[in-house]
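TA notes, week 10

Several of you asked for a full example with nothing omitted. So below is the full record: structure tokens for the whole chain, then the designed sequence directly under it. When grading your own attempts, check the secondary structure regions first.
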């Protein structure tokens, strides 16, 4: 049985083969998350507003798509970049607009 070749160190591929299945298919480790290129609080190129951190966005949010419904979500900050969705409550209206 022939095994798939591992990527060379200089080919720009940052994936890592950690093994092979019983039929020779390579098992690839999960890709790393990309690093932030613009610091939080700074204005990215082409933007007009500074970036917000997850701590600034954490809290309870009400989202509406009228006339169809609304939902309430609560988020907490796990780190400066990541948020966790805690709970959600939805209200669906299904109101169809009609002329008055």
């Amino acid at each position: 049985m022939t095994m798939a070749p591992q990527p060379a160190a200089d080919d720009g591929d940052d994936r890592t083969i950690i093994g092979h299945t019983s039929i020779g298919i390579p098992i690839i480790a999960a890709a790393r998350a990309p690093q932030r290129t613009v610091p939080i609080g700074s204005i990215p190129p082409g933007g007009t507003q500074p970036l917000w951190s997850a701590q600034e966005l954490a809290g309870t949010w009400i989202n509406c798509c009228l006339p169809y419904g609304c939902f309430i979500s609560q988020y907490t900050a796990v780190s400066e970049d990541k948020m966790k969705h805690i709970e959600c409550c939805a209200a669906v209206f299904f109101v169809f607009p009609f002329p008055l």
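DSSP finds one helix and five strands in the chain. Use that as a sanity check on your answer.
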